[in-house]
Amino acid sequence: MTTLLHISDLHFGTEIPEVLATLKQQVQAMPVDAIILSGDLTQRARLHQFRNCRAFIDSLGNVPLLAIPGNHDISLWCPWERFFTPYRRYQKYFPTDFDRYGVISAQCGEACLVAVRSTRRYRHIHGELSSRQIDRVARLLKKAPSKALKLVVCHQPLHVTDQEDEADLVRGADKATPVWRAAGADGIVSGHIHQPFIVPIPPGQDVPSQRPMWAIQTGTTVSRRLRDNYPNAFNIISNQAQIFETAEIENPLGLNRPSWGAALWLYDFKSAQFLPYRQYWLK
Known about the structure:
The chain is 21% helix and 23% strand. With 283 residues, the chain is α/β, with parallel strands linked by helices. Strands 3-2-1-10-11-12 form a six-stranded mixed β-sheet.
């Protein structure tokens, strides 16, 4: 059995202490097998912000971590460093063995995770997926065991639910989505827009297969940089049925024997707890 915790957009430097404390307490009480951190670890890529973020992640316990940098993790105020060594500070505290395409993969129990570095030193906000990255991710997805849950991790989203957010889609999303769906991806795990949702991604007209693929999005997990009144949030992705016993699970795909579910947890300031909001069967 495998349970994954998805957190994002921590923006250390703007963190809320009481939310940090609650997250730590609740995560330590959960059977988490791995943590996915989908970018924007810091607010301004300062060394002390990376250091504080690292200390917090380590305080959650000896849990494997798959992290990628977000656009806020590249220095905005130091052009020399931004151009020549954009990931130096990130790699110092979160060493990540990306290949030459900026891709890394990991097998966590019955889940296969493929993470792609979509940030660019010449873009402050909008990321980009190159054709080589798209092909590399697809090859890794095809190599994964057929029964595994296959997830792609990217900082900027490949799908949004509001038209106003379309400008924040990663550049190359229109090319990557059908390729990764055909390669077997079950979901795209992202952050960036600080809007939590879990929805199936509709196939485009150029996609012959109706194979389901999900957009698994979370808001900022611990920062005060909340957007449109969306609270702090994280996601739990698991094939352990007992994780979802506390609430009714939605089944928009009409699955008969679902094996994997995802739950969106939102922070409730009245009770000072993260509470399960909506839960879905993925596959």
